[in-house]
Amino acid sequence: MDLPKDLIQDAKKRIDPYDVEGFVLGEGNPEADIMIVGEAPGENEAEKGIPFIGRAGVELDKQLQILDLDREDVYITSVVRSRPYKWVKTNKKGSGGRRKANRKPNQKEIMAHAKLLDYQIEKVDPVLIIALGGVAFERLTGRKEKISDYLGEVIETPIMKVGNNEDQYIESEKIYPVVPLYHPAAVFYNPKIREDINRSLSRVKAHLERVKAKG
Ligand code: URA
């Protein structure tokens, strides 16, 4: 998808003061009915400029397969386009005693890239938005609740976008169906959620089948 150059330049400039690296715009079919919104790139994604190509990407593909979808059926993007990192200690040889670890993006970083996401949502105009994880769910809906209460539920909601008064979000006029799922990486830290994941995917699949049946 082509994005206006000034939008990209502005996003890069605004994220520059923070500890981030790389820049990933998004990937997939801009005509897709389904848009997937992740959190921020990880190490592999930041290096290659392609979303979800690391370990979380393998898990995402597995979950898409359960939904009978592949990457050509969706447009994948994220809340923040650069990898937020923090320095942590390591004993690994040749590392100089420290390495970069992923961290959650902060609100300023999220705002720095907010207009990119707004633009992509408007262009793709999806019939379903899948929010992967709490960061994406809160950015899209403004809701701070835990996503575990809403997994796989299709929520009809306005979505948050940057208003004319810069650096503030307003609600979109349009109502979008947004469905929260756990971020694919979550299962690596807590394998017990696998059952919840499968249940949430069944709910999404049933929804997609209902939409398809209606034509
Ligand atoms: N997590 C994300 O949100 N996006 C990626 O591309 C990889 C991990």
TrEMBL record:
Keyword Iron: yes
Domain of life from the UniProt record: Bacteria
Record-linked SUPFAM superfamilies: Uracil-DNA glycosylase-like
InterPro entries: UDG_Type-4/5, Uracil-DNA_glycosylase-like, Uracil-DNA_glycosylase-like_sf
UniProt entry keywords in alphabetical sequence: 4Fe-4S, DNA damage, DNA repair, Hydrolase, Iron, Iron-sulfur, Metal-binding
GO biological process per UniProt: DNA repair
A single MF term (Gene Ontology): deaminated base DNA N-glycosylase activity
Domain Uracil-DNA glycosylase-like: 25-198
Keyword Isomerase: no
PANTHER family for the chain: TYPE-4 URACIL-DNA GLYCOSYLASE, TYPE-5 URACIL-DNA GLYCOSYLASE
Name under which the protein is recorded: Uracil-DNA glycosylase
The species this protein was found in: Halobacillus yeomjeoni
Lineage per the UniProt record: Bacteria, Bacillati, Bacillota, Bacilli, Bacillales
